[in-house]
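Explain the record.
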Amino acid sequence: MHHIIHQAPERAPTPLQLRQAASWLARLRGLLGCRSLSAGEGLWIRPCNSVHSCFMRFPIDVLYLDREQRVMDIRHDLAPWRMSACWRAHSVVEMAAGEVRRLGIQTGDLLQCDS
């Protein structure tokens, strides 16, 4: 589990708990089999620029990040059996639907590893 800090201008940093999926198998599996995600918890998939929610049990929010881990694009409430892509993205963070709005994450914000 990686401890990530969400940094945004004029807002206090927000801690996130992200499990990393960097291997081919971990990226393929993604969140399949998960029943839910806790507040501030998610999956960081890298490299990645597209996701699917086939066989998922719950909707997700998707953050597309550039190489500097800055949020390039956001997909809110991606329902099961859908696909989404941002071809310029370098990595993706998947969180429970509603978390991105709850945390106030916006395009241009930075996610930074605190270790």
Q: What stands out?
A: The chain is about 10% helix and 45% strand. The helical segments are 24-29, 99-103.
